[in-house]
């Protein structure tokens, strides 16, 4: 009974480069100010033994209002397979979610450990830090400007990022030719959107000079290609210093762990046919926090069908690489209406969340 509901979405996530700073915001109260929220992981332990990851991907930062004290840490449990990949990711407590906490599990899913024996009963706690954009680390502001998941940075942040620059709005110079790297020729990291921020000056003739990488995720090939692209970019006018331009490589899809046969989870006493059909097809929506990282997953869910077609009693039998795919599968089925006249109990579906075949490139 291989019934699949594939969720197909484009892996390419194109965001515009950082905009020119807007008008001054004026005087605002602390609770009206924007702050940057970051989540920092603590030690990782598996059955009491400390484990050092090869890559511990940081959750994407978010923007919040005000500067309220951070809540309690949020702890996740997970396992590690023999290839070094994390799976079976789930929250262990019922703490309040907090700004940006939905980015934690996808970041943990994109993390990697050394291949070997594999581990079970692993855990890590993430602690939130909420700082005003006037005091947050420049590196964190830069990273957020590339992945602005909660709206653009306010003026105060751009003032800090462009401190000492005479190149706040390069559009006034007139762009003669913007050169881009051949993104598809560059390596992509599964589950991670690599980026390079290039700094440069523009001489009086519109030629870029002093080109260098000033920040990024450490993708050396992307850094080199980005520097070359900026070095070949030309303007009609110049005479400015401290320009910045970002390039990024969209993530390579991170395939889902192998899925079992859903028949192994068929409820006892099931009266559901192999294919009951749909009068309203399920609304196949990929969870945004996983879509932007191109992380694939699946869930096996059981449910009943009322005689009028309503889906009820939806239960998640198993989902991977995290419990979030099970929650999303429940939402997918709730949007549907089955084709039936008598109703059924013990139905089962495998919902697969799959990125498109073309992972896109970058910007």
From TrEMBL:
InterPro entries per UniProt: TonB_C
Record GO biological process: transmembrane transport
Stretches assigned to the TonB C-terminal domain: 283-339
The organism's place on the tree of life at top rank: Bacteria
Gene3D superfamilies: TonB
UniProt name for this protein: TonB family protein
Source organism of the structure: Blastomonas natatoria
